[in-house]
Design goal:
- It is a multi-pass membrane protein.
- Keywords: Cell membrane, Membrane, Transmembrane, Transmembrane helix, Transport.
- A hairpin with a 2-residue loop joins strand 1 and strand 2 (100-103).
- Helix 2 (42-59) runs parallel beside helix 5 and helix 7 (154-184) packs across helix 9 (202-225).
- The chain has one domain (22-271).
- It has helices at residues 22-35, 42-59, 63-68, 74-87, 104-129, 133-143, 154-184, 194-200, 202-225, 244-266, and strands at residues 93-97, 100-103.
- The protein is mainly α and 274 residues long.
- The radius of gyration is 23 Å and the shape is flat.
């Protein structure tokens, strides 16, 4: 399970999505996530599926790698589907047993929420798979640069996010090593009920937190030894510049967003729902 977590990891490849400016990928990802919540129709999700599929195809990231990253959110996905399925009422009753009732609105809402969650995680993952941590930091800092006028420490915020993304794979690797060491000593993390499994995780959490704090302290000392004092006066080795492909990506994403908005607002809802 630890190996399946791909959040924050960069997948090196040569593709059109990899070559885009980090600012384009951040903005387009936000617009895609917004599009998932401004419509609630079958046709809209078909368009979103085609758009997301095209992006995955252009990114050259293997589909099995993306699907593997969905495994850690399966529990959250099932919980969301079940809660919406049984707690949302309205429309025709499809099934009823004991105190549980499945209605037409509940089924539709649970399906749409599941699709939204899957697309939300997948869309965000594509951005991190195709953008290096340094690129994300530079792009975020550039996008938030106007906030410097109101004394917001944009560079420091972007730096913290970059460090957090870099630490995720390291902490996951450290967790995997600790779990294997504990299993070699006879620890059992698979059997027992939920409470017993939670108690079995304590021997992992304690050394993991100690290791994380030690790494953070070493990083802070290294930054101080190199006279790091924030972003004042710092220059970039690779300054960000918009190119033709970046403007095309903006245009395609805006066209997609307009189409989704029109479908969600002006096409009769009853023609396209489940």
């Amino acid at each position: 399970m630890i190996r399946d977590i791909t959040i924050g990891q960069y997948y090196p490849a040569e593709s059109r999505i990899h070559r885009l400016d980090p600012r384009v990928k951040i903005v387009c990802t936000l617009l895609f996530l917004i599009s998932l919540f401004i419509q609630n129709s079958f046709l809209g999700y078909v368009i979103a599926t085609v758009f997301l599929g095209a992006v995955i195809r252009l990114s050259n990231v293997p589909l099995k790698y993306i699907v593997k990253g969905m495994k850690p959110v399966v529990i959250l996905l099932l919980f969301t589907v079940v809660m919406n399925l049984f707690l949302t009422q309205g429309g025709e009753t499809l099934a009823h047993f004991w105190i549980f009732t499945i209605s037409e609105n509940g089924l539709r809402t649970s399906v749409f929420m599941a699709v939204r969650l899957i697309y939300l995680v997948t869309g965000s993952s594509i951005m991190t798979f195709t953008t290096s941590p340094n690129g994300l930091t530079d792009g975020l800092e550039k996008l938030l640069h106007p906030l410097n006028r109101i004394n917001v420490p944009v560079h420091e915020v972007a730096m913290m996010m970059s460090i957090a993304l870099r630490f995720i794979p390291i902490i996951l690797e450290e967790t995997d090593k600790i779990m294997k060491a504990q299993m070699a000593r006879g620890a059992d993390f698979e059997s027992g009920n939920i409470i017993q499994r939670a108690k079995a995780m304590i021997p992992i959490l304690v050394p993991l937190f100690v290791s994380a704090f030690r790494r953070a302290n070493d990083l802070a000392m290294a930054m101080e030894a190199r006279c790091y004092h924030g972003g004042d006066g710092r220059t970039k080795m690779k300054p960000l510049r918009y190119r033709g492909r970046d403007r095309i990506a903006y245009a395609v994403t805006l066209i997609y967003l307009v189409v989704i908005f029109i479908v969600g607002r002006y096409i009769p809802f009853k023609l396209w729902v489940f």
